[in-house]
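Handout, section B. The chain below has 229 residues.
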Amino acid sequence: MPGYLTKQEDIAIPGAADLIIRSLLDRQQFSDPLGTAEALGISSAAWPLFGLLWPSGSQLAQRMATRPLNAGERVLEIGCGLALASMVCHRRGVDVTASDCHPLAAAFLLENLRLNGMLPLKYRTGQWGAASAKTAADVQGRFDLIMGSDVLYERDARASLAQFLDRHATESAQIWIVDPDRGNRSAFSKQMAALRFEVAEERLDHPALADVPAYKGRLLVYQRAAAAA
């Protein structure tokens, strides 16, 4: 037995068809019998976070449901967790790669694709805060759009995330981050500015509706400034 409990829900995403999602029952779940997550620096308290549905993830999925399609573009989702946004893109025919550092993220993605009758979706290991050796399973190459939700939850004094994004973004790429007003946003934007990325912010606040909880946060869109002549 895996050692954790799950639930299955029908998730409504405005602008897209509903998704059937298997997630962890609650944030009290934990199973790391071989110490795989611990070796990656994932504590027992942080272990279940990948397998929960988060409001910012739903906000990102909703934006990707209505974003215009661009022929030939490559999209990467970082810290994907249950990968709602990647699944929405995949269903629309986008060339998308989901990535996360949690050892169970790929298995949950595979099951959720099966539940929705969808073909396999590209998945890579994506970890920017660790000094672990790179492997063939890690994120490779550059992308035209890199997206993520609620990934600014920790201080990152070494600018690991900004450097990861710089390494995997094409020169003209956009980077979309949905942030629920975390306190690390300003420091992250300064780190991105040092790498020539300018930011535009859009508030995503809305009150509680019939079946939709209230949300406060913003969409951060980063793009490289033109190089000096």
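Note. The helical segments are 36-39, 55-66, 84-91, 105-115, 160-168, 185-193. Compare this with the example in section A.
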